[in-house]
Amino acid sequence: MKVIYMGTPDFAVYGLKAIVEAGHEVVAVITQPDKAKGRSKALVPTPVKKQAIEYNIPVYQPEKIKEESVVKMIEDYAPEVIVVAAYGQILPESILNIPPYGCINIHASLLPKYRGAAPIEWSIIDGEEKTGVTTMYMEKGLDTGDMIEKVEIAITSGDTGATLHDKLAVAGGQLIVTTLDSLKNNTATRTKQDDSLSCYASMLNKDMGNIDFTKDAASIERLMRGLNPWPCAYTRLEGKTIKLFKADVVEKQGNPGEIIEVTKKTFTVACGKDALCIKELQPEGKKPMDTVAFLNGNKLQVGMRME
Fold first, then answer.
1. Alpha carbons 39 and 51: distance in angstroms, whole number
2. Beta-bridge partners for 45
3. pLDDT at 41
4. Which of 44, 163, 215, 276 is deepest in the core (most CB within 10 A)?
């Protein structure tokens, strides 16, 4: 099929690669503008832009997708279908109506659950046992269009936002290829979403990572995994910020936030229910490390508080 691909982050790279390698003609890629990063403020291309350049596909980076010139450019390409994956802007009807096969979104959840910006992370934080990828027809609403296909992925006890992202990105690339085949063969089904089953996966922010130790240990442990690698769960010890990445839930009690046990290899922090045996962390100004390395350079005592 003749495709225009719209996407921005790493997640969207897998879909682009899968479509190209399946033999479809990607005539243009639309992605977000380059962003300045680091102290040098050098402009860094999006992951999708980098991949498109490797394929010698024309790249467009409009500030606003609804601009008349952008709509005209898309019309001139006359795509049969537009595929969208984590693009970052809402498409206007003027674009949604252009391709005869529609605009198809690769969404990283089992819709109608987890509509919105951060479905991968929220599925871990909320303690879901499974998630997946859904391909869907796009419409004016946020992730509300008719569903085409789904694939399920189990969430393991060790999954982080990073590991689950990679699993879903690969699955999404595979799923969009079968979806395009079904569109071309006129065998694609349309299943309306049950809005009563939906929930909103809001955008992540740094404040979310501030650990409240009055909550139960299992919830905090899921928060740590869901927010890894960004924005990370964190607390403060002796006036310094510490990011917490990995911990085991243990059946021990104490005042929430209080260190209730210290060994040569680990330390344990009490929560509202149960406690967390910390396994991996990142002290302020340091690189991530296991707890053994941390304890070699830091003397912790029972009764110290994280807050």
1. 25
2. none
3. 86
4. 276
Tokens of 281: 């962390």
Q: Comparing C-alpha atoms, which of 206, 208, 233 is closest to residue 221?
A: 233
Bridge-based pairing of strands 275-283 and 289-290 is antiparallel
Both tokens of 84, joined, read: 């969208």
Direct distance between the N- and C-terminal alpha carbons of the chain, in angstroms, rounded to an integer: 55
Which ranges of 37-107 would DSSP assign to H, the alpha helix? Answer: 47-54, 68-77, 93-96
Instruction: Tell me the CA distances in angstroms from 163 to 154, 155, 184, 307, one per residue in order.
Output: 12, 10, 32, 28
Residues 281, 306 contacting (CB under 8 angstroms): no
User: CB neighbours (10 Å) of residue 8?
Assistant: 21
Residues 12/86, Cβ–Cβ less than 8 Å: yes
Say how far apart CA 117 and CA 125 lie, in whole Å.
14
Name the residue with tokens 């860094």.
44
